[in-house]
Specification:
β3 and β4 form a beta hairpin. This protein has a four-stranded mixed sheet. The protein is an alpha+beta fold. Helix content is about 45%, strand content about 25%. The N and C termini lie close together (about 10 Å). The protein has a single domain, classed as Glutaredoxin (3-Layer(aba) Sandwich), CATH 3.40.30. α1 crosses α3.
Length: about 80
């Protein structure tokens, strides 16, 4: 599973990254989690508001800091 946090590196983007990493660790899954700062790459996804989370190339969260339970539910639905 490839999880990308899309955002400029602002505090909301960093918080989103920490939440995603925490949930991945909690669930004990193998996932590559990386932060994408490149605005060209972010706009290629069609993202208009950051932070955003893409899982395996598909936007799952956009424009907000997600709750842990929200991230957990999304990841579990993709397993």
């Amino acid at each position: 599973m490839k999880i990308e946090i899309l955002g400029s590196g602002c505090s909301k983007c960093k918080a989103t990254e920490e939440i995603v990493k925490k949930v991945v660790k909690k669930l004990g899954i193998k996932a590559e989690v990386r932060h994408v700062y490149d605005m060209n790459k972010i706009t290629e996804y069609g993202v208009m508001m950051t932070p955003a989370v893409a899982i395996d190339g598909k936007i799952k969260i956009e424009g907000k800091i997600p709750r842990e339970d929200e991230v957990e539910k999304i990841i579990k639905s993709l397993k």
